Amino acid sequence: MEQVAALSRNIFKYTSGVGTAVWEGFSAMASNNKSPRLIKKIGTHDGMFHCDEALACFMLKQLPIYKDAEIVRTRNSSILDECDIVVDVGFVYDPKINRFDHHQRSFTETLNSVRQDLTNTKFNNIRLSSAGLIYAHFGLEVISEVLKARNFVAGSECLTALYLYIYEGFIEELDAIDNGIPMYAEGKPLYRINTHLGARIHRLNPVWNAPESVDTDSLFRKAMQVVGSEFQEIVLQGYSSWWPARAIVKKMIAKRKEFYETGEIIILDERCSWKDHIYTVEEELGIVGEIKFVLFPDKSAGTWRVQGVAVQPDSFICRVFLHKDWRGVRDEELSKVAGIEGCLFCHSTGFIGGNKSKEGAKQMAIASLKAAEAGVE
Questions:
Q1: Closest by CA position to 200, among listed 54, 308, 30
Q2: Which pick of 28, 197, 328, 368 has the fewest CB atoms within 10 Å?
């Protein structure tokens, strides 16, 4: 309200000959009686740009209130004070006045600390950059607007799931790199490099010996287009592919004991991205670590796969591997060694195998479970 009041006190100007009345911060066609439209300003720093503020600005411009906003790149505090929202500059984080910088020494915010209503301690290790700050505060609405532009509608459960998925798979990397956070702590990964987007945006900056006349503002707009395109892609992929897979995995985990009495094996009648969901669904159901094998069809070959569930995402260590005597063996020889008809292969590490039929793949999983129980690793 204070910003609007200040703008309303600005001196009125009239540009003759073009039929347009112009206020500081307002523009209106003099040929009609419509109310003046506030021209919003998004402030960020000038000079060399980075991925985080380019994405922050792009996300803000997806919101109806900032859709037509002007991007103001400066470090002049007086000019920034005239902006409606400021990101990545100014040494102030205060959402009440729309200031979103993260460079001050006192800044320690993480996604978990800002959005405790949506997250848990999983997102408590990486300090937010300007991209993470804007995403933390406006991400749900931004995702909704990106989907709405394609006539997609997501319910609250879907939006929340997408919000966390996109943060972990896209935003978190940018936050960590911009803040110089090491990938590992005590041998454990703190985040994953999924896009290398930051490096590509960095290369859009003028080289050291470029002419001084290079228009960095136009390059910044190009950076916004690049990061924006990738952001939109992950939102749409998450909605159209990743989220439907969650429903399939959740359904089959709920029915797992119908397939095998211990519930350690699940079957997917349709192959989907189950690795992204199995750990989350286990947590939701309070069965963390119980599922050992996943069966799914290879439609192109008309066969079935049996794969061990890793101890954690991106790990090569399975909770239970396929039987050690099968590893690296194929076809008829494997069927003889395993005593199971239709065997096709077992990977040399034992993380995945194949069989001609669903029942054969099931028997491979059961035999491997029993071997593990007997201590045959």
A1: 54
A2: 328
pLDDT tens string 183-210: 888 777 888 888 899 999 999 999 889 8
CA dist., res. 124 & res. 134, Å (int): 17
Task: Let me know: does 322 contact 284? Beta carbons within 8 Å.
Answer: no
CA 43, CA 141: separation in Å to the nearest integer?
A: 20
Q: Are strands 184-185 and 188-189 parallel, antiparallel or unpaired?
A: antiparallel
Residue 306, H or E segment: strand 303-308
Is residue 336 in some structural domain? yes
Q: Total structural domains in the chain? A: 3
Specify whether 189 is located in the same domain as 55: yes
Q: Are 200 and 161 in contact (CB under 8 A)?
A: no
Burial of 141 (0-12, 13-18, 19+ CB in 10 A): middle
Q: Which residue matches tokens 């309303």? A: 8
Question: Would you state the structure tokens that stand for residue 73, as one six-digit string?
Answer: 């790149």
Structure tokens at 272: 């989907």
Supply the pTM of this predicted model.
0.81
β-strand 37-38 against 26-29: which pairing, if any?
antiparallel
- State whether 61 and 200 are in the same domain: yes
Task: Extract the tokens encoding 33.
Answer: 């009686």
Tell me which amino acid residue 177 is. Answer: I
Residue 10 DSSP class: S
Residue 57: closest CA among 242, 162, 201: 201
The reply to whether 294 and 369 lie within a common domain is yes
